[in-house]
Amino acid sequence: MYLVKSVINFFGKKAAVDIFKIKALFHLIIFFGTSFSLTAQNASLQLASNNKTIICTANCTDQNTGVLNGITYTVYNNSSLASKSVSDTDWNRVVTTGVTDMRKLFQGETSFNQDISSWDTSSVSNMEALFQNASSFNQDIGYWNVSSMNDQNGVNQLLDGAGALNQDLSYWCFPSGLPNSKLQNIVGNNNPIASNNAYKPRRNGGWRGVVLADGKKIYSAESLKVGLFK
Predict the structure, then answer these.
(1) CA distances from 74 to 87, 208, 217 (A)
(2) pLDDT of residue 224
(3) What per-residue confidence (pLDDT) applies to 229?
């Protein structure tokens, strides 16, 4: 209303004749401004049953934002994620539900070590060299869903040279269709997981046993006798 009065004072009495038009225009500005603001923050987010993964369930357009537990997150797609600067400080507020390709995302990024444990990787089919030579990275990504990793080249050098990574990845369950020769390339060399069988990923039906819905693992005496994968 202050804006309406200012317009009248500026133009004089003649403007008073059109006061209703000015009011209408003023309200239109407010309406459209509010509408655009709401459109920019309309992603529907929810926390997965593991209390870790953040999933976008509706309006998951690239760069849409949504609020979960008081924190604002931004939705990314393949292109925007690949072009995101590694020096950004908000990687922990990235939503990746629609992302299918993460190849070489942090390859050679020797200083990167942000918390990306909440990423939804259920649709990702390619993680080739994702953390290759990311020598400082050591975050808990043990709840990442790798069930869509059917690309036989998408696992090559995934963790190779990630020298600081010392997290339990035994919950990772790759599709059974991946051949053993490819599965051996997941861990690679020069990282603590390579020499720690308890932390190594598994394949569907592989040696790490069964992971129940509540996250508990079941081991059998026979399964612990074999190597990395069956």
Answers:
(1) 16, 34, 33
(2) 31
(3) 36
| 48: Cα within 13 Å, side-chain hemisphere | 20
The residue written with tokens 């993964």 in the block is 53
- The tokens for 110 are 């020797």
Count of alpha carbons within 13 angstroms of residue 1, beta-carbon side: 0
Alpha-carbon gap, residue 163 to 195, rounded angstroms: 12
Q: What is the mean pLDDT of residues 5-17?
A: 47
Comparing 42 with 223, the larger pLDDT belongs to 42
**What is the full DSSP assignment across 173-184?**
EE-TTS-HHHHH
Polymer length of the chain:
230
Residue-wise pLDDT tens digits, 139-187:
999 999 999 998 778 999 999 999 999 999 998 988 887 776 666 678 8
How many CA atoms within 13 Å lie on the side-chain side of 124? 27
For residues 141 and 136, give the distance between their C-alpha atoms in angstroms, rounded to a whole number. Answer: 14
Cα–Cα distance between 66 and 57 in angstroms, integer? 11
User: For residue 96, which of 139, 132, 49, 144 has the smallest C-alpha distance?
Assistant: 144
What does the domain layout of the chain look like in residue ranges? 2-37, 43-230
